[in-house]
Amino acid sequence: MTGGGERAEWEGVSAPEVAGEDGAGRAGGPGEGLEIFVSVAERVRRSLDGASAGERLVARTLLANYPTAGLETATRLAERAGVSAPTVVRFVARLGFAGYRAFQQDLRDEIEARRASPLTLAQQVGAGGAPQSLRVSAGATFRQRLDESFAALSDPELEAVVDLLADPARRIALIGGRFSHILAEYLDLHLRLLRPGTRVLDPRPESLAAFSVDVGRRDVVVVFDYRRYQRDVVEFARRAHGRGAKVVLFTDPWLSPAAEAADLVIPVRVEAPSPFDSLVPALALVETVVAGVMARLGKEGEERLRQCEEIVGDVTVGKAVPLVFVLGLVGVALVAYGFVRLTRHFNHAGSVYALAGVTLGPRAGFFGGFALLGTYLFFAVCTLAATAVFTEAFAAAMGLSAHIPWSVVTVVAAVGAWAVNSRESRITARTLLIVEGVGIIGMLVLSAIIVIRTGAGNAPGGQTLDFSVFGLGDTTMSAVMTATVFAFLSWAGFEACASLGEETADPRRNVPRALAGSVLLTGGLYVLVMFAQTVGFGTDGKGVDRRTGSPTAALVAALVLAVAGDMILDLTGVPAFDAYYWFATLGVLCLLVAYAVAGAGVIAFILSGRGRIPRYEIVIPVLAIAYLCFVFYEQSVGQDSPLSYFPWVAAAWCLAGMAAVLAAPKLARRIGERLTAELTEPGDPATDPHENAVRV
């Protein structure tokens, strides 16, 4: 044996003799006449077709207790299987062995090959004789392994695998080992472009345990496991099989112990010119399976692939990212106009819902507040998850490899958030100002360095200043406008300074200035940083703490809910980035509804004439609402699962608020009036909701 158990031929038996009548393993085409290595386990598994009842009992006993059952005496194996010893001997001879002793010797050789470590393989490679051209020897080895692997493939099993993976009624879950997880991810990347319902499983025990509870007969579990097999992967395959899932195993010729739980087994050679097993034949087999799935899906697969390509094309704007943020700034400025106008007349800690309540009526204020509540809850989950994303990225950049669940980071972040927000508003504001200030200064310094070096022509990659990034170039306006949706997310929550109306000196003057300034200054910052990156890379006082003025109970409740949500996501195998993006999207969708309610309030306020605002300015909030509808639409159409569900989740939340208004109008009105009570100033009709509001 060489290279960890390799045998150029097995007892002189060629492909047709091992394959059986179904032609499995038959050498044809370029591999005509190949002597094919087929492991003992694979021969036993294939012998099930056409075997007698007694022989099938022997085969199943061997596979269920492989390889230890085969190392016992023929008499002991017969007792295990419930057959006679001569039946065992006949079965071994049917496999092609000269006798039971020869069968056991090959089995021992296989065990040595299965246990081969990189060190053992390195010693075998080093003893390979006179050196020759690496290019020639490696190329010959890989070609031989490919030819042998494909010649030994069973056509019926390969077709059965393709049928399972192409069945749209099936859910596909893929898992691999330390190295073979690459194959699971690679197959998933292709399958998700051709069909829905495919995912790579998180290998952590708690995530696999959660999936094991949910797995059932609709599922196909694809397992990649090669020698020095992973116990957790094998055990997971067994649990999945026990719950009725179809298990497809990609493994080596010696067969992973997961083979006993697999419905279909596809083995390939793994020997390589290095001390490490090769995934070249396995990768070629994955490509083959993808080709088969594509052929099986036909027009349906082509249509899904076309839709995916269109979506990718629509959101790819190339180097026009700065232009995207310029247009995003215009859209946000339209929305900000309403807040600037209203905060000149009203100031309240309630922000959106208070402004809607005083202009449209208390029930409309309740609805806007309910939408905003959804935003804050979803943002709490996504902000903590974002902290985990950046922490993971920082750890990776520093070369740290501690495998800590990302939900642990969210707990630490939540404690920090509580520590800051449980202090007086002035302390909290100063802390945030310092943190944000340091971050902004860092971005400005980095951007300046990039712009200076690219302008001077001495950038590391030879990049130069390119002001064409503010033009369309080869990008369509449709793609740019769609991308402004993502730019809009950068300004989400810009109206938060309006909630400091009760803490600000001369709020009717300073809050509008802060709103306008925050949008314009951050807009300038975003455009500058995106330009540098592009050229560089090519309510009332109830429930508040008497000392701090902060709603401590609400703060703790929000943080507990956010941490619990992130923990559930982590335990179910959702990566931190997905958790961040999912809940950011949900929060923004609810925020769009709240903004639209506030925009409708601006229209009502202008039409009332109480604020002495020229009526022609009504076009601005109308355009703002149109922009908000466009952003919501773009987040609702053409999205893949699970993103396609988020507009429905956000809509369901907002409709729940609407249902509360309709089901208990007096309660909603009473709550809304309490929320806006502090806005009322007798003698000023512009600020009196009973005089000013369009009743809703």
UniProtKB/TrEMBL annotation:
Keyword line: DNA-binding, Membrane, Transcription, Transcription regulation, Transmembrane, Transmembrane helix
Subcellular location, record wording: Membrane
Topology with respect to the bilayer: Multi-pass membrane protein
GO CC annotations on file: membrane
Region (Disordered): 1-30
CDD domains given in the database record: SIS_RpiR
Feature: compositional bias, Basic and acidic residues: 1-10
Pfam families documented for this protein: AA_permease, HTH_6, SIS
Residues covered by the HTH rpiR-type domain: 38-114
Gene3D superfamilies xrefs: Amino acid/polyamine transporter I, Glucose-6-phosphate isomerase like protein, domain 1, Winged helix-like DNA-binding domain superfamily/Winged helix DNA-binding domain
Predominant cellular place of this UniProt entry's protein: membrane
A single GO molecular function term of this UniProt record: DNA-binding transcription factor activity
InterPro entries xref list: AA-permease/SLC12A_dom, Homeodomain-like_sf, HTH_RpiR, RpiR-like, RpiR-like_SIS, SIS_dom, SIS_dom_sf, WH-like_DNA-bd_sf
Annotated protein name in UniProt: DNA-binding MurR/RpiR family transcriptional regulator
Lineage: Bacteria, Bacillati, Actinomycetota, Actinomycetes, Streptosporangiales
